[in-house]
Automatic annotation (TrEMBL):
Topology of this chain in the membrane: Multi-pass membrane protein
Protein name per its UniProtKB record: TonB-dependent receptor
Domain of life: Bacteria
Example GO BP: siderophore transmembrane transport
Pfam families xrefs: CarbopepD_reg_2, Plug, TonB_dep_Rec_b-barrel
Any one Gene Ontology cellular component term annotated for this protein: cell outer membrane
Keyword annotations of the record: Cell outer membrane, Membrane, Receptor, TonB box, Transmembrane, Transmembrane beta strand, Transport
Record domain TonB-dependent receptor plug: where: 119-223
Organism annotation: Emticicia agri
InterPro entries reported for this sequence: Beta-barrel_TonB, Beta-barrel_TonB_sf, CarboxyPept-like_regulatory, Plug_dom, Plug_dom_sf, TonB-dep_rcpt-like
Record-stated family: Belongs to the TonB-dependent receptor family.
Keyword Repeat applies: no
Subcellular localization(s) per the UniProt record: Cell outer membrane
Length: 737
């Protein structure tokens, strides 16, 4: 009987062999290097294997016919290929997979103005791509940056939602925002313009903390954010992303690329609309600013002899924004019956870079021009402004010797600014638009001292047509005892010319008047930054940790004083000095199980010391900020979950004690936490959804004297968190390559 049973089992197995007779074998590599222990699975089956240390694998029992193979490994993007399996033929594949964002070989340009990798860059740069930001979908760059450690988008008004970006606690004017390395988002455009940069045009974002004035000039005092737009030659053929929330916020992103002769073109658009008036705290004011905004972006990349660069891009943004009393209508705009803040914004930009046809020399001309028009009313106060900026930059990238890699640059920038406030008025009340010429020259030398040391020396000289010459030196030193440990020391001097933007939220949205006490001098900053980063792998994954200590000293700091008089905002150069100091920690871990974690925190002190040694903490600046993003992917189910959030310590807030304001001077500890699930389908289609602010945190006391918005006591600047309660969201995206 036993022999009969074994014979039946043998016949059954033998009869199935033709079905499972195929063999798939191959090698998994990335940039010609083997990827150890990668997972190889036949889609929609439980059949798979793991590559060995040399990246080689064999699947001996693969079903016949056309099969879809999924290759995944921690630190690499999942790759899907199709193979034909035959009983009489063995496949021998070479599968090249792409590294994830966190790898050492990621290309950056911000720290040195030339392409290099993260591990080779003398300056510490943080790179973030759209994949990271999709862990918590947002409609624009401004909101996305809340996920970056040490970077905090700050809303400055609870009515119109003006905002700026703080880096290491320093206020918005100290943060320079670049697009493709060009300073076209500044002054007037930063207040509402940052929300007009959609994710559809972004390839990656590079963040550099600390002064960068030697390369980028004025405004790069506290750090800079460089938005690298998509390359038309590498972008998906078609991309679409839509999401909506239970608040009825709707965001649409779409892009398409085309080949036109010897050029590649990318066309993208974004439309965001929110028209739902919400008043949770029953103060008769909209909790969230209504917005109707669209943005168009077009970029061309031209093929030229010897692969010389020629890119040209244009962007247009229009926005209609409103915040105010719930019963406000368009007919009330600028009137004194119903309080409302209504802002119309129109903005266009043109930018490009062109590599000049010099034989054996890399000389590039970068250029941009933009105009920002704003027509706004704040109650009965009308604010009309226009700003035009033209920028040109000539770069000569020259390899002087084996150990010396130099960069020479010459720039010129012209800024035209006009508005209907005292900023552009003479003593006899005549209108005089502000015009500033800012030519400059700079040079840097990247010195390679052996295999472990790299030194970057740089100097810059600018001549401001109002303030004269300004000199900025720079020193960066990178020491790498091995490929997994990197130490960086940065010493720099930054400056910020007087570019006082009169639309201070307290000046226009409240009752205060702007007073410029003296002729304002340029600010100076002196910064030291020490950074250590360690990369490591372990049996079930990889990770990296980063520690950073920073210290910045300010002289001639321009201060907006809210304490002298409850009816005034007094601008003057600080007679003492300002300090920003702290330590930061970043970590990233990824496991073969599908778990990934990004965790960071910054502990800092930002304050000013008056001439009488009185120390005053900066408003709306917490001593501690933390952020996290924890993800888990079920690869076989093509399903992933993301948990993201921020934690903030108490921050000093503007209160008006002279008018009986009893609100707390400091905010409480609080956090905003979100969760999301994403399901991937074939052909690049995804569905996602989740809950934002699932702990339902809401700030208290947002507006002082909301019952009397036209009075001198009205003040909406007491802001430390978005006024949005728990809300659900759903969305869909499609990428076709």
């Amino acid at each position: 009987m036993r022999k009969i049973f074994l014979t039946i089992i043998y016949i059954a197995i033998y009869g199935l062999l033709p079905v499972f007779a195929g063999e798939i074998k191959g090698t998994i590599v990335s940039k010609d290097k083997p990827v150890s222990f990668a997972s190889v699975v036949i889609a929609n089956t439980t059949i798979g294997t793991q590559a060995n240390e040399e990246g080689k694998f064999i699947i001996a029992n693969a079903p016949n016919g056309q099969q879809t193979i999924q290759v995944s490994s921690v630190g690499y993007k999942t790759k899907t290929i199709t193979v034909n399996v035959s009983a009489n033929k063995s496949n021998n594949l070479l599968i090249d997979i792409e590294e994830e964002n966190a790898q050492l070989s990621e290309v950056v340009v911000t720290g040195t103005m030339k392409e290099t990798t993260i591990n080779e860059s003398p300056a510490p740069i943080q790179i973030l791509n759209p994949t990271f930001f999709r862990k918590n979908p947002t409609p624009n760059l401004f909101e996305s940056l809340s996920m970056v450690n040490g970077v905090r988008p700050q809303l400055n008004c609870n009515v119109c939602s003006t905002g700026d970006i703080h880096i290491n606690g320093m206020e918005g004017p100290y943060t320079m925002v670049l697009i493709d390395g060009m300073p076209i988002v500044s002054a007037l455009s930063t207040v509402y313009g940052l929300s007009g940069i959609p994710n559809s045009m972004v390839e990656r974002i590079e963040v550099m903390k600390g002064p960068a004035s030697t390369l980028y000039g004025s405004e790069a005092v506290g750090g800079l954010i460089n938005v690298i737009t998509k390359n038309p030659t590498k972008a998906p053929k078609f991309n679409f992303d839509w999401n909506t929330t239970s608040y009825l916020e709707n965001n649409f992103d779409a892009s398409v690329k085309a080949k036109v002769g010897n050029a590649s073109a990318l066309f993208s658009g974004n439309y965001f609309i929110f028209g739902n008036r919400v008043d949770i705290n029953h103060d008769n004011f909209t909790d969230v600013t209504l917005q109707n905004r669209f943005s168009l972006f077009n970029k061309w990349s031209f093929q030229r002899p010897q692969n010389r660069v020629f890119n040209l891009a244009a962007r247009y943004v229009y926005e209609d924004r409103f915040g105010g009393e719930m019963q406000w209508q368009r007919k009330n705009r600028g009137g004194d019956e119903v309080y409302g803040e209504s802002i119309f914004t129109k903005r266009w930009e043109l930018l490009g870079n062109y590599q000049l046809p010099f034989e054996n020399e890399k000389v590039t001309f970068n250029f941009s021009v933009n105009q920002h028009d704003q027509n706004s009313v704040y109650g009965i106060t009308r604010y009309l402004a226009v700003q035009r900026i033209a920028f040109g930059q000539l770069l000569w990238d020259k390899k002087l010797s084996k150990n010396h890699d130099a960069l020479f640059g010459a720039t010129i920038r012209n800024t035209y600014y006009d508005d209907n406030t005292v900023i552009t008025q003479t003593a006899d009340l005549k209108n005089t638009p502000d015009r500033i010429w800012l030519p400059g020259v700079f040079v840097q030398d990247e010195i390679t001292a052996g295999s472990k040391n790299k030194i970057l020396l740089g100097v810059r000289y600018d001549y401001n047509s109002k303030h004269g010459g300004i000199f900025s030196p720079r020193l960066n030193w990178k020491f790498s005892p091995d490929k997994d440990n990197i130490f960086r020391l940065s010493l720099g001097n930054g400056y910020r010319v007087v570019n006082l933007f009169s639309e201070d939220h307290a000046a226009l949205t409240g009752s205060r008047k702007v007073v410029i006490k003296n002729a304002l001098k340029p600010e100076r900053s002196y910064n030291a930054n020490l950074d250590y980063q360690k990369f490591f792998t372990f049996q079930k994954g990889y990770g990296n940790i980063q520690f950073n200590a920073f210290y910045t000293y300010f002289s001639n700091k321009i201060i907006a004083d809210y304490d002298q008089d409850p009816e005034l905002v007094v601008y003057d150069n600080l007679k003492g000095h300002g300090i920003s100091k702290g330590v930061a920690f970043n970590s990233e871990f990824a496991f073969t199980s599908g778990l990934k974690a990004f965790i960071g925190g910054t502990l800092m002190e930002v304050y000013r010391v008056e001439s009488n040694e009185l120390r005053i903490n900066q408003i709306q600046t917490p001593n501690f900020t933390g952020n996290y993003a924890i993800s888990y992917a079920f690869e076989k189910m093509a399903l992933s979950f993301d948990l993201t959030g921020n934690i903030y310590s108490p921050m000093r807030l503007p209160v008006v004690r002279e008018y009986g304001d009893t609100r707390p001077e400091y905010s409480p500890w609080f956090g905003i936490h979100n969760i999301q699930a994403t399901k991937r389908f074939k052909n690049g289609f995804q569905l996602y959804g989740g809950v934002k602010n699932f702990t339902n945190f809401l700030p208290k006391y947002p507006i002082f004297r909301a019952d009397a918005p036209f009075s001198e006591q009205f003040d909406p600047s007491y802001n430390y968190a978005p006024l949005q309660r728990i809300r659900g969201f759903i969305g869909a995206r499609l990428n076709i390559f």
